[in-house]
Amino acid sequence: MLLAATDYVRPASLQEAIDELGSRRAARVLAGGQSLINVLKHRAASVELLVDVSRLEELRFIDVGADGSARIGAATTYRELERSAELRGAHAIIADVAAATVDRQVRARGTIGGNACFADPASNYPPLLVALGAEMEVAGRDGTRSVAADDFWVGVWRTAVGPGEVLTAIKLPPLGGAGVGYRSLQIAADSWALARAAAWVAPGDPVDAARVVLGCVAATPVRASAAEANLIGGPRSAEAASAAGALASEGLDPPSDVHASGGYRREMAAVMAARALRDALGFGEEVASNGR
Questions:
Q1: What's the CA gap between 197 and 183, in Å, rounded?
Q2: Do 82 and 98 touch, CB atoms closer than 8 A?
């Protein structure tokens, strides 16, 4: 199916992009286009203007601080994330997820900001960014503001980025010795996931802080508060990870579709959470490159 007629611009600067986005309410950012173009081709959405930011160097960078923090431009591609030695030294999980994303063509074009802003419930980065405590930088005509990843996703295909605004960067705090785990259950290596889980666990024994976040089970990433509460104050052990993971899907009511029932997704979310927690605590087993 062909793309419906729409206007297209490739701004030369971020400010020009913001001005173009503010010129029409039905204007949308085009980065890699790996998801948005397919949506437009299938007439699931329509736009008046596509603002192509894919070549803006202002949005394509990876800055890693001496403390292990990182700031990633929203138009940075999966391939650039995958190949960044500096990023691997500070937040290897971000590079690993990029390396396992679908196929070579998508990795060459798709961007971390596009993945975040597309806001598909099955997208790979949202639950991980919430678990890492990321901050999302959003720019518009009134300046730049920061939105916590916890508050960034507000619904299916909906984020805190408003009309005339653009996501410019993602800021990651230093791990500081914390452990991170990320697991996905996928139909195949190059398919969407049925359940995802990301975990961040602070260093120390007993555990004094943890975040467990689920994907593919609701419209937005879900904090598994029961799993977090069960883990905090307890020992760093594989048994503790399994016990907390078993509680991760408590109260969930995931949707059913042609790939899996809601009940199956709920059960698999708990399994993925337990595995992600074991990884974060240092008790994980070797897995395939797609994170299963």
A1: 5
A2: yes
Q: What is the DSSP letter of 63?
A: E
**Beta strand pairing status for 153-155 and 158-159?**
antiparallel
CATH number at residue 242: 3.30.390.50
Q: Are residues 146 and 190 in the same domain?
A: no
Cα angle 74, 107, 113; round to 5: 15
- How far apart CA 12 and CA 265 sit, in angstroms, is 44
Do the domain assignments include residue 291? no
Domain presence at residue 198: yes
Residue whose pair of structure tokens reads 């609701």 in the numeric block: 218
The residue to which tokens 């990301």 are assigned: 198
- Find the helix or strand (DSSP H, E) in which 280 lies: helix 262-281
As averages over each run of 10 residues, the pLDDT of the chain (292 residues) reads: 80 96 86 70 74 93 98 96 97 95 79 93 95 98 97 96 95 97 86 92 96 97 97 96 96 92 96 97 63 44
Residue 45 forms part of a structural domain: yes
* φ, ψ of residue 273 in degrees (nearest 5): -65, -45
Residue 136 vs residues 132, 142, 214: alpha-carbon distances, Å: 12, 16, 19
Kindly provide the b/e burial profile for residues 39-49, where b requires at least 16 CB atoms within 10 angstroms of the residue's own CB.
ebeeeeeebeb
Q: Mapping DSSP to helix (H, G, I), strand (E, B) and coil, where does residue 234 land?
A: coil
Strands in the chain per DSSP E? 7-9, 27-30, 49-52, 62-64, 70-73, 135-140, 143-148, 153-155, 158-159, 166-172, 179-186, 193-201, 210-215, 222-223
pTM score above 0.90:
yes
